[in-house]
Amino acid sequence: MTDFTLWDIARNLLLAVPWTVLLSAIAFTGGGIVGLLLLVIRFGRYRWARVGVKLYVELFQGTPLLMQLFLVYFGLPALGVEVSAWLAAALCLTLYASAFLADIWRGCVEAIPRGQWDGGASLGLRYLAQLRLVILPQAMRLAIPPTVGFLVQLVKSTALASIVGYHELTRTAQILTNATFQPFVIFGLVALIYFVLCYPLTQASRALERRLATEKH
Q1: pLDDT digit string, tens, across residues 82-127
Q2: pLDDT attached to residue 217
Q3: Coil, strand, or helix at residue 165?
Q4: DSSP line for 92-153
Q5: Is the CA virtual torsion 38, 111, 64, 53 positive or negative?
Q6: 121 and 97 in contact (C-beta within 8 Å)?
Q7: pLDDT tens digits along 65-81
Q8: Cβ contacts of 47 within 8 Å, gap of 6 or more
Q9: How far, in Å, CA of 36 to CA of 100, rounded?
Q10: Residue 126 CB-half CA count within 13 A
């Protein structure tokens, strides 16, 4: 057993925090870009494309993220495509986030009255112009609280990346536990760090919801 003080454990865990934050940021940014593209297709004129987006969303929402990680990390090498733990985690979390964000934003767009679409059409705006100039600015206000709420979920979901060996916060905790045999102390600190990361986001989401509700009235 290696002698670790509480400060040694805390310091090693804190060094892993940036990797958790980085993975969360990449997944959220990439998922947002892909999710926006899916949203545009979802409301487009081509039925086959709309059906494809719907199936994509249902696939990623209806299967465990852990299984998706396994399929990418272990499945792609079987097909001759080598992937690192970092790439597998970033790719899976990005696709996972894109499906949920696309669905969240779809609900926000559908909450905009149909008359707004008709008003844009009466001005001679085509579909993309209607979406960009009329619909999305209004839907964005509705989308901010649930989007921030999903970001909290995404930060916590990065813990699953430890299963494929990505050295984020949870993986570092596992390694420290094997070295020190102090799981209660280590994972107690991990829980505290996740709370510190997620609590401000949770409070921001609730504040935005209250503000939006007040503005409606």
Answers
A1: 889 999 999 999 999 999 999 999 999 988 888 888 788 888 888 8
A2: 53
A3: coil
A4: HHHHHHHHHHHHHHHHHHHTS-HHHHHHHHHTT--HHHHIIIIIHHHHHHHHHHHHHHHHHH
A5: negative
A6: no
A7: 999 999 999 988 888 88
A8: none
A9: 11
A10: 4
pTM of the predicted model as reported, rounded to 2 decimal places: 0.90
User: How far lies 44's CA from each of 59, 85, 181, in Å?
Assistant: 20, 36, 56
Q: What six digits make up the tokens of 31?
A: 């998922």
Question: Hey, CA dihedral for 195, 198, 200, 204, is it positive or negative?
Answer: negative
Q: How far apart are CA 40 and CA 126, in angstroms?
A: 13
Contacts of 136 (CB under 8 A, 6+ apart): 109
What domains does the chain contain, in order, with CATH numbers?
A: 6-216 (1.10.3720.10)
Q: Of 42, 59, 23, 9, which is closest to residue 197 (Cα–Cα)? A: 23
